[in-house]
Design brief:
The chain is 52% helix and 2% strand. By secondary structure, the protein is mostly helical. The protein has a two-stranded antiparallel ribbon with strand order 1-2.
């Protein structure tokens, strides 16, 4: 009975992993029967944002600004690892589930230590459980991974100075004849 929440979580996580329950033709169908086409749907972009989760936590358990920042940072710190686990096709689903559980348990232990109060810890775990699948999907789609910084755009070269092969500006080309 103690492992029932983990088992349910495992089944939910398996359901969110693409291809975990791939459709197979029925075994009782006649051998010449046409196999029904499987309609693939485009993946939907998750509507949840980490800020939504953190804001609900803040409103429910009265987080300070520092606690909000630390909790968001804990989730973002796990984002890259979680995305790699969930999108690693070489891992069997059971191993993915175990690694996700281990990562989540370690993160939740850090957050519970931050919260200290028993009532706040219970409230956190309740809210985390309701957001668990959505946060996992968000991580799988890269939503917890910090965006790559965009490289700076080089400044345009002024039109009156054309670069020469030596790398120095050639001002003679810009001079007009007298």
């Amino acid at each position: 009975m103690k492992n029932l929440p983990r088992l349910i979580g495992c089944l939910v996580l398996l359901a969110t992993i693409p291809g975990a329950f791939a459709a197979t033709p029925a075994t009782n169908a006649p051998p010449d029967a046409p196999v029904p086409a499987i309609k693939e749907t485009a993946p939907t972009k998750p509507t949840l944002k980490l800020d939504d989760f953190v804001n609900e936590l803040a409103a429910t358990i009265k987080l300070t600004d520092e606690e909000k920042k630390e909790i968001a940072n804990d989730y973002r710190a796990d984002g890259v690892v979680l995305k790699n686990i969930l999108n690693n096709d070489s891992l069997p689903p059971v191993q993915k589930v175990q690694q996700v559980f281990d990562l989540r348990d370690a993160r939740n232990a850090k957050i519970e230590a931050l919260l200290q109060d028993v009532d706040r810890k219970k409230a956190f775990l309740k809210i985390e459980a309701t957001y668990r699948v959505a946060l996992t999907e968000l991580a799988a789609n890269g939503g917890l991974v910090p965006a790559e910084p965009t490289p700076p755009v080089p400044a345009p070269v002024p039109s009156d100075t054309a670069p020469s092969p030596t790398g120095k500006a050639d001002k003679s080309a810009a001079k007009q004849p007298e």
